[in-house]
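Progress against Task 2.4 (sequence-to-structure conversion) is shown through the following example record, which the project officer requested during the mid-term review.
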Amino acid sequence: MGFKKIFYFALLALTPYLGIAAMFFLSEQKILMLIMIGLVLVFTTILTIACVHKSLKNKRDAYNLARAVMIVKFIQIPAYIFNFVFACLCFMMLFTFPFAIIYFITDCIALVLSGLVATSAVLCAINEKPEVFSRYIWLIPLQFVFCADVVATVFIYKKLKAEKENKSENPE
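Structure tokens generated for the chain above:
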């Protein structure tokens, strides 16, 4: 995997951690840090759209794309747990309620961005072998549901891996 792809997937993996960073740096340099975090989110969103477009246009290898997004989703799990716990705590207190909203928004942004990449992996798999993978179209909506996204991504990765192993054992 090239440096550009590693950089992009690292940015995508760190997206839910931006909510944690926002709360950590909120005490000092509030405006500057929030602007920086906002710019990182905008940059990551642009890169995600470019990645999805390129993978669908160039018909990228669905297996490698699914593997990369699965790793990203596993890296994001601790941040989701942290954000959920702290959002619940902030939600209980009157003055920290806005912080809960920031945690929720960063989680939603991370879910949508990683879900778009996982969706492109499913669509690339369908483009590669429609007779095998067209029945997995139902995985696309699951990419945008918390917790179900990880299960759906692992599922499509396992199916692509099995197909790849089957193809290497039975070359045409």
